[in-house]
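Researcher: Good morning. I'm working through a list of sequences from a screen, and I'd like to move beyond sequence-only analysis. For each chain I'm collecting a predicted structure so we can compare shapes side by side. This is the next one on the list. No need for commentary yet; just the structure.
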Amino acid sequence: MNVTLSPRFEAMIRERIEHGDYADAADVIEEALLRMEKEDQAKLERLRAALKEGFDQLERGEGREFTPEVAAELWENARRKHREGHRPNPDVLP
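Model: Good morning. Structure tokens for this chain:
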């Protein structure tokens, strides 16, 4: 497989190899992919935990019917947080 990288990433890989952190570019890329895989797994675990928490809340009767009014309230809350400079949780972004 051939991969074309930007000069910035090529320099990062060369630097890691020159410092003796890795034997070659393949090792650097493999490590990066393993880290990405771990991050993806951690994100999936956080989402599963959030779903479980939500279902547990529903079972305890803590749910709220999703009505147009509730939707409007959620949108307004999101807009207010955006205006205040809050960033969305990366786990809920596509």
